[in-house]
Specification:
- With 217 residues, the chain is mostly beta strands.
- The chain has one domain: Sandwich (Jelly Rolls).
- It contains 2 helices and 13 strands.
- The strands form 2 sheets. Strands 1, 3, 4, 6, 9, 10, 11 and 13 form an 8-stranded antiparallel β-sheet that branches.
- The longest helix is centred in the first third of the chain and has 11 residues.
- The N terminus is likely disordered.
């Protein structure tokens, strides 16, 4: 009888799909899968170093992923130089104002004015949501590990193993925060819709590595 009960329990238990595999967005050898903002070849200021590091050394322009993603988990490592400002944007689409999307801020908090404002500091959902008190940022020159999870209306930013931003874009809290930001007039900003991944060239010297993604839809 016990055996029959266990069998029935197993048959009626929910079946969870295995985690989807990761896809490498930067293979450490080339910029295949990326274009410039105009759709052409990436700028020469993006250099690939031994050890699989993507290094922005000079004016290069933004990098745009060839593919679009809606629900996903994105991981990347980054290291800044003194005063550096950069970022990784997601659910990015082209608008009359340019390539617009939610941004995971990459910044030298101590050496850049944006670091003095929580909503524009490292790890923030730039200009909209500030990181919480769990934020632990590594010093300039050291590698930080970041993760973005976008699932439906919910967005999460992680930094060095800590969840530092979580917001539901369908809530009044988000509506108020967006209204107070420079994105107030961008319809559908950061909401669940297909968009590109963008690596920002903001005139700062920055390094990225271990960039990978997996879909959640």
């Amino acid at each position: 009888m016990r055996s029959l009960f266990v069998s029935l329990l197993l048959l009626t238990a929910p079946v969870f799909a295995e985690d989807k595999p990761w896809t490498t967005l930067f293979d450490g050898k080339s910029l295949d899968g990326w274009t410039s903002a105009s759709g052409g070849k990436p700028g020469d200021g993006w250099k690939i170093e031994d050890g699989g590091v993507l290094h922005r050394v000079a004016k290069a322009g933004d990098l745009i992923s060839a593919k679009e993603y809606t629900d996903f988990e994105l991981e990347f490592d980054w290291a800044v130089t003194p005063g550096c400002n950069s970022g990784i944007k997601y659910r990015v689409r082209k608008t009359s104002a340019g390539w617009i999307g939610a941004e995971y801020q990459v910044l030298d908090d101590a050496g850049h004015d944006n670091g003095k404002v929580p909503k524009t500091s490292a790890g923030s959902l730039y200009e909209v949501i500030a990181p919480n008190a769990d934020k632990q940022l590594k010093p300039v020159g050291e590698w930080n590990h970041s993760r973005v999870i976008a699932k439906g209306p919910v967005l999460e930013h992680w930094l060095n193993g800590k969840l530092i931003v979580k917001i539901d874009t369908s809530t009044p809290e988000w509506a108020a925060a967006r209204k107070a930001s420079k994105f107030s007039k961008i319809d559908g900003f950061a909401e669940a819709a297909p968009g590109h991944i963008l690596i920002q060239d903001h005139d700062g010297e920055v390094r990225f590595k271990e960039i990978r993604i997996r879909t959640l839809d």
